[in-house]
């Protein structure tokens, strides 16, 4: 999370005209003294002209003439206010279905959504629609403002019923942090100041929640991605790559890979106009220089060698259609993703959401304000992550090359050919590919891994130590776990001997049983990693294909394969379990590395020769590797 | 030093620099509209920072109504010099002389509306495809609806009901020949943010923003400076007051505020406690409830 904008909260609101949304915002601005006297005079005059008795606070936000005349909110309006604790940018969007695209726009940058419910009407379609969009766009926090409590006699019963209705609906969405506030925008109760008319309500006012919610859930702080915007070349000596760090963090000296060329180089420096700086974090606009004279241009992306995004020319995505001209399959569009723009064709429309009921339905077309799931082919490969993992590299827009209009907004699920790698995104592949009840759509069940990682303050993955018996895997694994654990990292240790006693107690040492042993352990490791843990696994795991399967399961960037080794003479001498002696005396057969095969890794992240290095140095090298992948934060600086 | 900026100002700075770089990358002939006011000063400073150590890769463009406070032009030239930027100037007087526009007459005459024609002519002449401005969404309610990248048709007009959606930090600058974009990198800044940033970065600004003694007169509740460009009505009597300006534009319609704020700190304190908007002193906005929206549709900034 970027500490730099902890004092800035971006809020989106949506709600129907009659929910009193504009009145609520007007009230928020008025009671935080963010409205100026001349603005107030202006709307007092306007209210009189419209024949209204009280000052219509809604006129403050409805900026366009048509909006004031028709008393509706057409577009996204941005409002700014500040309290001593925080600065707020509020994107105010209309709630009618024909303004879904505006809601999506407002939600695209929001940290928090305020969903309005009219207490006299209960949970209507509009509130559900807005909540769904907030969930789809990955807004981490939601406040449900139950408005017009004055019209239901400040009734706790009414409030509880609405809370119950909405909660059962929201349990199907991804937004986890949902808070309910009973209020009256018209009278000002629980908007800025706590109301005394609802003593049964123990919570804070709307503003209190806005001021205290944690910011930062939208930035991915783990995976370094740097899309190059433009190249700065004041003279022949200096060649800087200007851009905004999309996610993760970059430090001078980091090894990086340039996509799409795949060329590896090193970050020579990070700078701003103030001069060099040690590093840059997600959201910061900087200039990066690299140490080699590599050909890099706008649209290229710098990433870490062992933490690559997906590179593909086919992707699956949720698409919100934003133009009157409907989606045309196989029609040429331009896809704008980070700083890249490439021709793209929508190959297929898999289904359309009925966003009011959340049902999926078969569809031939996608029209204005409709949301569906599509498969898109691009003519050049894109470098992306799923939207759930990384909003900056998981989002795109489609442009009609003839009108140049922005016709759609897309959220990438994954590349089409991805294996079980979809699972690490908190998007169970099962929910899409297995038969499910036709009436239930789960955009994303469960707490997303990213949320767990954000809370833990570090990434997750599997460190897989492989090697022959006696090589020192368990010793290194235990020392590494102790080191990470002491540093506040949430760890899980899986050790061969331990699982052989329980989980895999029914298995022997045949090739099939060994494979099954590793399969089970791999699944368990994947589950823990998916739940935000750094898993350290120490297994002989002699077969390459068994280890590769785990790599596919958890994703290559999150699978750290380490070969632990020592010369055979050392192994025989150590022989901690007496295996080599037993083998030498013919009491056992099938000993790995002796009469059973051991396939060493072809491209291990690290080789630890325990006969030549101390355990402490091995742990240090492993730590550096985990840091370079962004799995754990670098030593506090 | 940006390191000591408050968090939200750093965020706004990074956002503006990102937008400026997108403009440089997506357009062939961008220009930065420079009025000499605080917003365009901050914008040009950000442009300087965005491309450092290279010079700003586009020229500044000043549409000069000829009704300036003298301090403005002196400041402009010194500032452009310091940035090492290129400056283009186009004069409303030239548009009048060429018969492109007719000067308003009478004591209420203002060249503020005329500059739209000069601006559109200049954009055409210079083949500008992106005109960046320092407008902020908090200034006025029609501006609250502006995009960062705001499309203009071949006549330079804005169609507020048919704007391109703008999501995340993806900006679509595609257009047809003859069309152009207005780009507002400071969209999310407030007046107070501008002053805080000027203070933190130690950016120079015209003295007009600080309290000083000046001969002014009151017209429709607004204090206007007595200059060679305004004609006083019989019942309008000038008096010497301690005032400062919150915006700097055409001298004939930019109202002064009674103020003792004679230092940057004092201006910030005053702005934080202000009970009127900065454009409350602009008589051009008071012509009707939709005055700004109507002018913007025509091509005004």
Describe the structure.
The complex is a heterodimer of chains A (637) and B (301). Chain A has 17 helices and 28 strands. Chain A is an alpha/beta fold and 637 residues long. In chain A, the strands form five sheets. In chain A, strands 7, 8, 9, 11, 12, 13, 15 and 16 form an eight-stranded antiparallel beta sheet that branches. In chain A, strands 2-3-1-4-5-6 form a six-stranded mixed beta sheet, with helices on both faces. A six-stranded antiparallel barrel of chain A has the order 17-21-19-18-22-23. Chain B folds into two domains: 204 residues, Rossmann fold, CATH 3.40.50; 81 residues, no CATH class. Chain B is built from eight helices and ten strands. Chain B has a six-stranded mixed beta sheet with strand order 3-2-1-4-6-5, with helices on both faces. In chain B, a hairpin with a 2-residue loop joins strand 7 and strand 8. The interface between A and B is large, with 71 and 57 residues.
Can you give me a brief rundown of this structure?
With 637 residues, chain A is α/β, with parallel strands linked by helices.
Distinctive features:
heterodimer; A: 637 residues; alpha/beta; Rossmann fold; Elongation Factor Tu (Ef-tu), domain 3; eight-stranded antiparallel β-sheet; six-stranded mixed β-sheet; 28 strands; 26% helix; disordered N terminus; B: 301 residues; four-stranded antiparallel β-sheet; 8 helices; 10 strands; globular
């Amino acid at each position: 999370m970027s500490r730099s904008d902890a004092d800035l909260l971006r809020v989106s609101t949506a709600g129907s005209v009659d929910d009193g949304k504009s009145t609520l915002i007007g009230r928020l601005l008025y009671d935080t003294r963010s409205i100026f006297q001349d603005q107030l005079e202006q709307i007092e005059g306007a209210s009189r002209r419209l024949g209204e008795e009280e000052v219509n606070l809604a006129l403050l936000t409805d900026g366009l003439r048509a909006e004031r005349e028709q008393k509706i909110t057409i577009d996204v309006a941005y409002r700014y206010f500040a309290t001593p604790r925080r600065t707020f940018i509020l994107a105010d969007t209309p709630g009618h279905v024909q303004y879904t695209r505006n809601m999506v726009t407002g939600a695209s940058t929001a940290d928090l959504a305020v969903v309005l419910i009219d207490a006299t009407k209960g949970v209507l379609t509009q509130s559900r629609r807005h909540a769904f969009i907030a969930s789809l766009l990955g807004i981490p926090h939601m406040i449900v403002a139950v408005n017009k409590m004055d019209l239901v006699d400040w009734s706790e019963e009414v409030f509880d019923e609405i809370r119950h209705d909405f909660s059962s609906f929201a349990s199907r969405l991804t937004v986890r942090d949902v808070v309910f506030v009973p209020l009256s925008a018209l009278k000002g109760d629980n908007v800025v100041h706590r109301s005394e008319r609802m003593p049964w309500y123990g919570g804070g006012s709307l503003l209190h929640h806005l001021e205290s919610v944690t910011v930062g859930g939208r930035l991915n702080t783990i995976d370094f991605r740097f899309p190059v915007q433009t190249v700065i070349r004041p003279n022949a000596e200096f060649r800087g790559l200007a851009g905004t760090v999309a996610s993760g963090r970059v430090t001078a000296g980091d090894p990086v890979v340039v996509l799409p060329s795949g060329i590896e180089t090193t970050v020579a420096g990070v700078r701003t106009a103030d001069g060099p700086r040690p590093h840059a974090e997600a959201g910061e606009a900087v200039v990066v220089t690299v140490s080699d004279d590599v050909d890099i241009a706008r649209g290229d992306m710098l990433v870490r060698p062992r933490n690559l995004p997906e590179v593909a020319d086919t992707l699956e995505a949720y698409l919100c259609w934003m133009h009157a001209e409907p989606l045309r399959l196989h029609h040429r569009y331009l896809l704008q993703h980070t700083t890249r723009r490439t021709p793209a064709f929508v190959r297929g429309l898999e289904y359309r959401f009925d966003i009011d009921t959340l049902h999926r339905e078969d569809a031939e077309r996608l029209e204005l304000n409709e949301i569906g799931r599509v498969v898109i082919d691009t003519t050049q490969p894109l470098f992306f992550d799923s939207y759930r993992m990384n909003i900056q590299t998981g989002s795109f827009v489609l442009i009609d090359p003839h009108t140049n209009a922005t016709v759609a907004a897309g959220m990438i699920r994954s590349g089409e050919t991805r294996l079980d790698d979809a699972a690490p995104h908190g998007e169970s592949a099962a929910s899409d590919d297995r038969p499910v009840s036709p009436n239930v759509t789960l955009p994303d069940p469960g707490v997303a891994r990213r949320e767990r990682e954000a809370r833990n303050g570090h990434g997750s993955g599997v460190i897989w130590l492989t090697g022959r018996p006696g090589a020192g895997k368990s010793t290194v694994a235990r020392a590494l776990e102790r080191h990470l654990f002491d540093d506040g990292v949430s760890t899980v240790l899986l050790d061969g001997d331990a699982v052989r006693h329980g989980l895999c107690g029914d298995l022997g040492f045949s090739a099939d049983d060994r494979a099954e042993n590793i399969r089970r352990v791999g699944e368990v490791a994947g589950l823990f990693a998916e739940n935000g843990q750094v898993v350290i696994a120490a297994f002989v795991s002699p077969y390459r294909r068994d280890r590769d399967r785990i790599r596919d399961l958890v994703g290559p960037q999150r699978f750290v394969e380490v070969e632990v080794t020592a010369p055979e003479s050392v192994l025989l001498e150590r022989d901690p379990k007496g295996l080599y002696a037993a083998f030498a005396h013919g009491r056992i057969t099938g000993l790995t590395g002796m009469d059973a095969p051991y396939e060493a890794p072809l491209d291990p992240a690290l080789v630890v020769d325990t006969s030549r290095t101390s355990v402490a140095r091995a742990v240090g090298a492993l730590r550096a590797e985990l840091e370079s992948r962004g799995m754990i934060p670098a030593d506090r600086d | 030093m940006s390191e000591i900026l408050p968090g939200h100002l750093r965020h706004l700075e990074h956002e503006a620099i990102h937008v400026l770089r997108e403009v440089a990358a997506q357009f062939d002939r961008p220009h930065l509209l420079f009025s000499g006011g605080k917003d365009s000063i901050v914008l040009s400073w950000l442009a300087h920072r965005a491309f450092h150590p290279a010079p700003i890769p586009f020229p500044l463009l000043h549409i000069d109504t000829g009704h300036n406070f003298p301090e403005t032009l002196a400041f402009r030239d010194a500032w452009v010099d310091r940035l090492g930027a290129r400056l283009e100037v186009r004069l409303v007087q030239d548009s009048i002389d060429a018969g492109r526009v007719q000067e308003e007459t009478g004591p209420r005459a203002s060249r503020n509306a005329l500059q739209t024609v000069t601006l559109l002519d200049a954009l055409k002449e210079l083949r500008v495809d992106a005109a960046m401005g320092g407008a902020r969404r908090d200034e006025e309610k029609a501006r609250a609806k502006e995009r960062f990248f705001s499309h203009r048709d071949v006549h330079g007009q804005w169609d507020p009901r048919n704007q391109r959606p703008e999501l995340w930090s993806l900006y679509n600058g595609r257009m047809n020949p003859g069309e152009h974009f207005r780009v507002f990198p400071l969209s999310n800044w407030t007046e107070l943010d501008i002053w805080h940033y000027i203070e933190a970065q130690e950016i120079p600004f015209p003295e007009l923003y600080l309290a000083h003694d000046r001969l002014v007169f009151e017209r429709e509740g607004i204090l206007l400076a007595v200059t060679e460009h305004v004609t006083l009505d019989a019942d309008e009597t000038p008096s010497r007051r301690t005032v400062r300006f919150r915006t700097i534009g055409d001298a004939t319609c930019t109202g002064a505020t009674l103020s003792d704020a004679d230092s940057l700190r004092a201006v910030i304190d005053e702005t934080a406690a202000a009970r009127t908007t900065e454009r409350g002193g602009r008589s051009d906005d008071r012509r009707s409830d939709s005055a700004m929206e109507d002018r913007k549709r025509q091509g005004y900034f």
